[in-house]
What we know:
The chain is an alpha/beta fold. It contains seven helices and nine strands. The protein has a single domain, classed as 3-Layer(aba) Sandwich (Rossmann fold), CATH 3.40.50.300. A hairpin with a 2-residue loop joins strand 5 and strand 6. Helix 5 runs antiparallel to helix 6. The longest helix is centred in the last third of the chain and has 17 residues. It is globular.
Amino acid sequence: xxxxxxKTGKLIVFSxxxxxxxxxxxxxxxxIPQLNLEFSISATSRAKRxxxxxxxxxxxxxxxxxxxxxKNDEFLxxxxxxxxxxxxxxxxxxxxxxxxxxxxxxxxxxxxxxxIKRKFPEQTIAVFVKPPSIDELKxxxxxxxxxxxxxxxxxxxxxxxxLATAPLFDVIIKNDNLETALKExxxxxxxxxxx
Length: 195
């Protein structure tokens, strides 16, 4: 993934524990034309949920195809979340967005975000969105009513571990107040894409 033109696109990574509001922030930024962002669609080997659309929500691959692409070095980063349940970022996705003359924005888990930052240290800004507190996170996840108590406790435990990685990110946005967090995100990304 080398780029010879002087104006190489940039990579903007948003990572956070589940329920901290990163998806809301990323959607907001995508709606600002002058930031010139395009969303990086992840690949996954998990089954489609609800009305998800291939090529819009995710690139849905079989576990076998996913493993072939890993072997062929087609991913920027990937991980096996549980057995045969893979998520990753295809190099071709980033190249597609750069070819469109846009910057890539990721809504990605903490380990994936840090892997992208390590691969492209100069071109990447890694932003960590911090929920107000673990308790607040638990309340938000419960409000969603999509998961069992066990799953919520699992996510909360994972969130605690993820919060410990916050200092590894370039910037931390504390999402106590969504309006403030959105403005902060806009300013950070605006400065970065114009630098």
